[in-house]
Amino acid sequence: MPIEIENVTYTYMPLTPFERTALRNVSLTIEEGSFTAIAGHTGSGKSTLVQHLNGLLHPTTGRVMVDGADLAAKGKAAKNARCCVGMVFQYPEHQLFEETVAADIAFGPKNMELAEDEIDKRVRDAMEFVDLDYEKYHSVSPFQLSGGQMRRVAIAGVVALKPKYLVLDEPTAGLDPQGRERLLKKIVQLHKKEKVTIVFVSHNMDDIARVADQVVFMNQGEMILKDIPQRAFFEEEKLQAAGLSAPQLVKLLKGLRANGLDVETAAFTVEKGVENILAALRRKRNAD
Amino acid sequence: MEFIQVEDMSHVYYPGQENEHAALKHINLRIKQGEFIAVLGTNGSGKSTLAKHFNALLLPTSGHCYIDGLDTLNTEELWQIRQQVGMVFQNPDNQIIAAVVEDDVAFGPENLGVPPKEIRQRVTESLQAVRMERYRKFAPHLLSGGQKQRIAIAGALAMHTKCLVFDEPTAMLDPIGRTEVLATVKRLHEEAGITIVYITHFMEEAAAADRVLVMDHGEIVEDDTPAKIFIKVDEMKRRGLDVPLAAEVAWRLRRNGIHLPQDILTNEDLVVALCR
Ligand SMILES: Nc1ncnc2c1ncn2[C@@H]1O[C@H](COP(=O)(O)OP(=O)(O)OP(=O)(O)O)[C@@H](O)[C@H]1O
Ligand SMILES: Nc1ncnc2c1ncn2[C@@H]1O[C@H](COP(=O)(O)OP(=O)(O)OP(=O)(O)O)[C@@H](O)[C@H]1O
Ligand SMILES: [Mg+2]
Ligand SMILES: [Mg+2]
What we know:
The complex is a heterodimer. Chain A is an alpha/beta fold. Chain A is 41% helix and 21% strand. In chain B, helix 3 (101-111) packs parallel to helix 5.
């Protein structure tokens, strides 16, 4: 069953000087097995929106249904539904608190009352998922790690829960290029092989274009677009309105086109982009 | 002596203990007043550790770090050093102190003893530079991730120091915000002659610097102009890093027999080369 966000409006600190409506009447269906990416300018409401998906925030008006259960309801169904949504927060390193990396990652699985050897296996698998060498790091304190390493530990802690829905709020921010690339690949693998439903918040349009099958643009708390990447990133006006820009690669190809090279601009991978440029150069040579 | 001069400097975390870790190994480095330096390196390579030596937040465990001729190991000069080097940390939450945005931005200059009237002006200017003037009276902890990052940047700008160290300032910003922050940094460098040390995982941003340092396992393994660094595509990828998109596309086109100049770094460079 899908996650259904129905007419959700959310106001922070109502009736105070800080009152701020961060979401306005947002409706969105996240189908089981889909890969949804959410983009938008800073402060557009992305983190507020995704924090509704595991019941951390409840709508001021509207509702969020996960597997048929209203997350704001009391009772077992809502609790179970909240538990099948794993959430990697935007600054996940704030959630680290155990004495060692392994203990931190094991915290969730332990709460699920899994067997000791299953916990151990999950910790090892999760560390591999984020490219942290088990032998080197399992007994290190998370507070002695670099920024990017801490982020990896935090992500591993959520992956170890093996959630049915995985929500990631800017998971690749602060990772080095190779780390980012590998983590993206792993997330895609999780989606394809294990059929995990992914919700992915990112400021990296090139990444979104490559991995998502549904893109959502947020602007000032409103959802202004929901479409496949192949169309979304060519909606100039909406991109501008949302304070976004097309992927670097698309911008490059468009720049070439605007300057007289007859190149096909729909490409989301470097390989495809280069192929398109070569084809255009060949056509140009033949025409000369 | 150069503005920043690092001599055979090492930094070992927890020396002599079980969790001892050599994060910097015999670094030698000279940065001239007014230079714009980008620092690249994989997670854990030592970038933040190096940066924290530039305002004496960390001290060398061996060797020396001189800022404008002052040895950071000389604690009497600590005050003077901090007045010259402002720092934007990797995680803005570690930096935000006050309960209201404008107080937070004013905190640095207040500590430097700047008169109140001037502080107000600096706060306004700095908030404008990061386009957060609307949030002047807001509580920083209630801001979004990217908004906090902008406030942290404004706080450093308001210090009016000779040198600014930015540790991944754009990690949480949207594409337009990233462009704006980089433009602000370039302006500070070009117009005010401020020395910039800019740590980033975005290769496009590093391409805007005068000089790029590449760190690997606590050592500086490359130190050159962006054009010379980013022509070595294989090597950068092998190090777990990357090159700007235009440089990679150019590299792939060259391998397909297309003749292109060696110094392509930006989309504009590539457009000029291909559409002449
Ligand atoms: N706890 C809070 N109290 C009051 N206002 C808040 C709170 N958290 C966020 N806001 C405001 O709500 C709006 C949306 O914030 P949100 O964190 O959802 O943005 P975002 O799209 O995730 O931004 P970013 O890309 O910077 O992470 C912002 O204007 C922010 O200032
Ligand atoms: N407070 C600390 N105590 C012990 N070791 C530390 C501490 N901070 C960092 N380290 C270790 O020193 C090394 C360098 O860390 P540093 O934070 O300088 O890396 P970095 O290049 O900034 O990485 P990132 O890109 O992830 O921010 C890492 O291996 C890290 O584990
Ligand atoms: Mg956010
Ligand atoms: Mg760092």
